[in-house]
Amino acid sequence: MATNSPGTKNKNEDLEMETEASPLSIEGLRSGVINHVLLKAVMFLLIAIFAVGFLFTSFNPTGGLNGNGNGGPTGAGPATVARVRDNEIERARFEQVANRQDEFMTQFGQKVGPLEYFGSRQRTLQSLIDNAAQVQTGRDLGITVSDDEIKAEINKQIDENIKQQKAQGEAGFRRAVEAQFGSVDKYRAEMEKQLQENRDGIESTLILTKFEKKIKDENKVSEADYKKSVTKLRLRQIVIRPKLAPAADKTLTDKNNAAAKANAEKLAALLKKKPTPQAFAYIAKKESADFATKDKGGDLNWKLPSELAVSPGIKAALLKSNDKIIGPIKDESTGDIYIFMAESRALKLPKDYTKNKAKLLKDFETAQDNEVWSQYQTGISKIAKSEIEDPALQAYKIQTEQIAAAPAAEQTKLRTDALTKYEEALKYASGMEAAAVRYQMAQLYRDLKQPKKAVEVLKTAADQTNNAPTLDFEYARALRESGDKKTALTELQKISKELDSAPPSQPSMFGGNPDDALRQQISMEFAMLGRTDLAQKESAKVKPPTGGMPGGMTMPGGGTITVPPR
Q1: Closest CA to 72 of 44, 103, 43
Q2: Which of 162, 509, 535, 547 could cysteine-pair with 523, CB 3.0–4.6 Å?
Q3: Which domain holds residue 308?
Q4: Is the predicted pLDDT of residue 321 greater than 90, yes or no?
């Protein structure tokens, strides 16, 4: 189909044809193409990834690693947390990355306590599993690293470390180095010795760097591709949604998915025979599951593919296709199946395209390279096979994944299996980990209709943990559920009083305040205990929301943030 010229406008259409910044350029980002909600979601993902993005522990001339002469807390439990094929995820590495992630999130008002502990640890483990799988895939593709490359990387890391420390005060740095090591050369030798002990980790990092470069180099992007990315489509859509089935019923789920696919293929075939807006609108009103557009005949108006709230695969298909009827295409995230009609197309080049063509094309190429690498990583993660050896993490996986997917008849046994694993973990767990284990055990006891057991483990956790009001609240809630309303009321009043006198929590960058959220829960518990007076008093202490992400925060520009291996 011939594309419309930039100045063309159909008399019945409402597309404004003035040129604008591309959403894939820096100008596009600054112009607000990406909405605030999406920006917050992306920032959260970046934080989670960035938090585990450190390969080398910081050197300190006054005390080895982390300034305390060791590699930081290594935790207890099995020395190997998990395995990915022939690769081991060691306890020391796992704890180091997890602790740094927790510290980083705390800076943004996302403090990790006993209730959040295993969710955070599971994300850390998944990042390390994904990373190990990517490195192994790189090796499988024949990517290797020479001794000279490892040596160069070690020297680079040492140079960067020394440069950073000199920037904090060169005279003080030199005095500290000479006092402990005698000279900068001897300090370099000590750092090199320690880094040489991590040769495997350095090799893995370099393999991953080469692997990423290989995938990006193979991704060819042209000016025509860029122009497609800034070509608006006059779109209609039909969404076919498979019927829901119980999570544990795989047979019915597969049957419903197959039925939805067959229906989508039948409708697409009909529309390709008669690709008119009237025919599409008629079928959309009758068949589409998208209530926002169904009554409008599937009308989406003029859109860039990048503006649609669909998976990357669908956006890519819309970018590449020149057809009038596009689909059916399955959304990898939701399972919905889409059929589109591109009634017409209109190229919308930025105002400064001629002047800044090279930069705009480079921005686009970088964005496309990053997207391809991200999708490649996702594909590796989906097929990565791992074995978890830490019993607490085994239990958490059973609790959060396997139980929901199992038939009802098998769920009681799985909960019992998870409790057994948690009991095993308590043989070595201490501090926050022990409290977190007991909190998860309480959730299992609740599901097993054993409220007194839930009270028992939560009381132990609360007694052994200081400054954990959310855990204390869970104990109070369990008391109420077990029938001990008097003690529950006493505990809630104690928590409320402690919040009154404690320093306020740091507001979350994503909006809201942890203290206020807890006060709202306390208020609800007071109400459930029949004390509406206390409930109202507690609610009155909640401050009005002040918004989410600070306005001065911006997205990082260009490149990707990857998770280096150990």
Answers
A1: 103
A2: 535
A3: 221-349
A4: yes
Q: Are strands 80-84 and 87-90 parallel, antiparallel or unpaired?
A: antiparallel
> What is the rounded distance in angstroms from the CA atom of residue 355 to the CA atom of residue 137?
42
Whether residues 419 and 445 fall in one domain: yes
Question: Computed from CA positions of residues 526, 517, 395, 468, in that sequence, does the dihedral angle turn out positive or negative?
Answer: negative
**Alpha-carbon gap, residue 56 to 199, rounded angstroms:** 11
Reported as a single tens digit per residue, the pLDDT across 324-341 is 999 999 998 899 999 999
- pLDDT of 508: 63
Number of Cβ atoms within 10 Å of the Cβ of 289: 13
| Together in a domain, 203 and 247 | no
Looking at the whole model, is its pTM more than 0.70? yes
Given a contact cutoff of 8 angstroms between Cβ atoms, the answer to whether 66 and 57 are in contact is yes
- Residue 470 CB: number of other CB atoms within 10 A? 17
Tell me which amino acid residue 157 is: Q
Q: Which residue has the tokens 């047979």?
A: 251
Separation of alpha carbons 273 and 259, rounded Å: 22
Q: Which residue has the tokens 């009634």?
A: 343
Nearest-5° Cα angle at 306, 303 to 307: 50
In a domain, 30, yes or no: no
Do 60 and 190 lie in a common domain?
A: yes
